[in-house]
Amino acid sequence: xxxxxxxxxxxxxxxxxxxxxxxxxxxxxxxxxxxxxxxxxxxxxxxxxxxxxxxxxxxxxxxxxxxxxxxxxxxxxxxxxxxxxxxxxxxxxxxxxxxxxxxxxxxxxxxxxxxxxxxxxxxxxxxxxxxxxxxxxxxxxxxxxxxxxxxxxxxxxxxxxxxxxxxxxxxxxxxxxxxxxxxxxxxxxxxxxxxxxxxxxxxxxxxxxxxxxxxxxxxxxxxxxxxxxxxxxxx
Length: 235
Description:
Elements: H1 2-14, H2 18-24, H3 39-50, H4 58-71, H5 74-86, H6 95-106, H7 110-127, H8 132-138, H9 144-152, H10 155-159, H11 164-174, H12 180-194, H13 198-208, H14 214-220, H15 226-233
Helix pairs in contact: 3-5, 4-5, 5-7, 7-9, 8-9, 9-12, 11-12, 12-13, 12-14
């Protein structure tokens, strides 16, 4: 297994771009470690290496993901997210604890958070909706990434028109969160839900607009018709 990681890091270093490495920092408030590789190239490398993992068990692949998360490098975390999603047909209920450990122990930027939550955790929740209650628990975490994850894990299910009741419940719990990345996270969740449930989301926003942070409100109504956006944003 260590040979796979060594070979992967060799390829990542070969594709590293110093200029991109420096410019990537502009997208994050937090300091990140990265090789400086375009997202399309990372995805290609993920897929190329995964072809050699087909004989591995899910547990072994998750073990490789653990090593990638531990490196602290952005690109390695994205590959870990991709690999954990590639095995989604084999997900079992106990896997959510693994995903939670990655969020709470390793995630330190929005890109890693959103990539893991949108695909890996979103897929898991569609398979096992009984575990939506875990997201409610995450909203009370001291870790900003756990709280953001509670919302952005529902982005893909929301795109599929699912879990509107839970979406509103999580928005309620995060409504007054002072962290702008959490506000953007639940605002994004509402925005995606609005594409299927425009009236319901608009009514929700209007009922909360007096106290909802403007950051979250702007995200929530972004895809709505102009007249509704103006009505929601007016003071």
